[in-house]
Every structure is written in structure tokens, then in C-alpha cells.
């Protein structure tokens, strides 16, 4: 928990040095489990790209899937349909400067899991 609070504090600290809309194209974001969000297009508050899961605790590792989302200079939401795994995950949070803190909801076979991800902008 202390680590999570430290990361959130760092993200908020970066927010003053960041750009107005952190989700620009092209950009690459990586979360604490190594998964990657590549933003390839941003237009009128909507963005597209790919999401590649690298968390070995979940299926569909290493396969880039299309991602769609919305952003408005901070509040950000995006969805990935992991077709081969019959799973849909939605993230929502805030992109602030060089970081993005999100909460996710994963749906699989009628079950729901939730969690948190911290993404750092690499490019």
C-alpha cells in the first residue's frame, strides 16, 4: 500500500510538468506489470492504438489487441477486447503529465475482477 501511495504521489508531482493532454500520438505507456499501451491516433478526444498484456497471471500474453478510448486532458477511459481469451477489460483514470493512474474492470465468463494500474509514459 505504501508503494502504491508513493507512486500516486509521484504521478501528481509530475502533473505540473506535463503537457495539457498527456495522451498524444504516438506515445507508449507501460504499467507496473509490464503491459504496454501504444497510442497511435488521438482526434477530438478519442484515441486508438494497441494494448499488449505482459502479465503472466493472465492469458493472451504478448498479443497486441486494438484499444479505443477517450481522453480530455486528464480523465481517460479505454477498453480492450481480448478476443482470443473471451475477456473485455475497461480502464478509467487520469493521465497527468508522465503518468496515468487507472482502475480496471475485467469481465470473463460472467465473472468480474477489479484492480488498479499505474502507467508511465515511456515515449
CATH superfamily: Avidin-like
Radius of gyration: 14 Å
Tell me the structural class: mainly beta
Order of helices and strands: HEEEEEEEE
CATH architecture: Beta Barrel
Number of strands: 8
Distance between the termini: 28 Å
How many domains in all? 1
Main beta-sheet annotation: 8 strands, antiparallel, barrel
Q: Determine the strand fraction and express it as a percent band.
A: over 45%
Q: State mean pLDDT (0 to 100 scale).
A: 86
The CATH topology corresponds to Lipocalin
Low-confidence stretches: 4-20
Strand order of the largest sheet: 1-2-3-4-5-6-7-8
Shape: globular
Number of helices: 1
User: Helicity, in percent?
Assistant: 10-25%
Q: What's the quaternary structure here?
A: single chain
> Which CATH top level class fits?
Mainly Beta
Describe this structure in words.
This protein is mostly beta strands. Helices cover 11% and strands 54% of the residues. The chain is built from 1 helix and 8 strands. It has one helix at 2-14, and strands at residues 27-31, 36-43, 46-52, 64-71, 75-82, 87-96, 99-108, 111-121. An 8-stranded antiparallel barrel has the order 1-2-3-4-5-6-7-8. A hairpin with a 2-residue loop joins β2 (36-43) and β3. It is globular and about 35 Å long.
Entry summary:
The chain has 123 residues and is mainly β.
Helix and strand topology:
Elements: H1 2-14, E1 27-31, E2 36-43, E3 46-52, E4 64-71, E5 75-82, E6 87-96, E7 99-108, E8 111-121
Antiparallel strand pairs: 1-2, 1-8, 2-3, 3-4, 4-5, 5-6, 6-7, 7-8
